[in-house]
Amino acid sequence: MRRVSRIAVAGVATAALAVTVSACGSSSSESSSSSSSSAGTSKGIGLAYDVGGKGDQSFNDAAYAGLVKAEKDFGVSGRDVEPQDNESDADKVQRLETLARSGYNPVIGVGFAYAPAVKEAAAKFPKVTFGIIDDNTITAANVADMVFHEEQSSYLAGVTAALTTKTNTVGFIGGVDVPLIHKFEAGFEQGVKDTKKGVTVKAQYLTQTAAQGGFSSPDKGEAAADGQIEAGADVVFAAAGLSGQGVIKSAAAHKVWAIGVDSDQYNQAALAKYKPYILTSALKNVAGAVYDLSKSVIKDKKPLSGEIRGSLSNGAVGLADSNPTFKNNATLQAALAKAEAGIKDGSIKVKTS
């Protein structure tokens, strides 16, 4: 039987972790051991990034923040590895196996694209704990499938957009047309429609595949947002990784609202000049997932495995409240509290497609 665990997020909120990002040298190229790590031993944490890599101010950077805190708290080193353009599953397998062979444990693939590689590498290194974020298809004793109810936080983003728009037109921009991003769109559209009748949601995807740059092309995000804003959207929500930076740039240029994703993008240093136009962000605690898996292996000596799902109920998804305009809007906050309670008690069932 697979062990199912919750993400423990106390003290590991993404927003709190973000401030520590600059304090770590985890891009080292350590590599010496030729054998797999034994259970419960580790020279540190191995992290393999998704498309867009570190510096996306979103998904990958949230994973990095979890790595940084785990290094600090557990006194270990870490090694984080960037993806390559147009890489194959074999390239990903080699990356994960190199980390495992070098003594890193756990080894974490950031993003659903790592599923085939994690499955293959985990079979070859049964004493190493592997983690994958945004995929729950691997049923191995030494693999933790770390997934989220993204549709729940997206629903709250939809409530926010519906109560903020003055044009009654809002936008959704997905990076790649895949089921994971459909969850963001479905939750967002439902939140809008449940909150305010007559609001139009313009939705589009940047590419059909990740290889076409949907998660890694700010210029594509900017162009898409320009089109939606010119068509009347005054709130635009992007679930597009690095491409979302272009959406935020466009929103700021047109002086309309952007809703960020995964990390609290209002507080990202690289986006500081746009922050007056970042209303909130739909968070998922990728940082906490990385941290908790690392803790289970390195400190607790009881590696997590099986599906680990983050939700509103366990605090692993939600909305960032760093922007005072968002936080101090009493009407909006009351509506969000009501919506969150409904999702938690089941009276609101959020769609995933």
Structural class: alpha/beta
What general outline do the C-alpha atoms trace?
globular
Strand % is 15-25%
- In whole angstroms, how far apart are the ends? 29 Å
Query: Whole-number average pLDDT?
Result: 89
Describe the structure.
By secondary structure, the chain is an alpha/beta fold. It is 38% helix and 19% strand. The chain has eleven helices and twelve strands. The strands form two sheets. Strands 2-1-3-4-5-11 form a six-stranded parallel sheet, sandwiched between helices. A six-stranded mixed sheet has the order 7-6-8-9-10-12, with helices on both faces. It is globular, with a radius of gyration of 19 Å.
Keywords:
single chain; 353 residues; alpha/beta; 6-stranded parallel beta sheet; 6-stranded mixed beta sheet; 11 helices; 38% helix; disordered N terminus
Write the layout of secondary structure elements.
Layout: H1 14-18, E1 44-48, H2 59-74, E2 77-81, H3 89-101, E3 107-110, H4 115-124, E4 130-133, E5 143-148, H5 150-164, E6 169-176, H6 179-195, E7 200-207, H7 218-230, E8 235-239, H8 244-254, E9 257-262, E10 278-284, H9 286-298, E11 306-310, E12 317-319, H10 324-327, H11 330-345
Parallel strand pairs: 1-2, 1-3, 3-4, 4-5, 5-11, 6-7, 6-8, 8-9, 9-10
Antiparallel strand pairs: 10-12
Short characterization:
With about 350 residues, the chain is α/β, with parallel strands linked by helices. It is about 40% helix and about 20% strand.
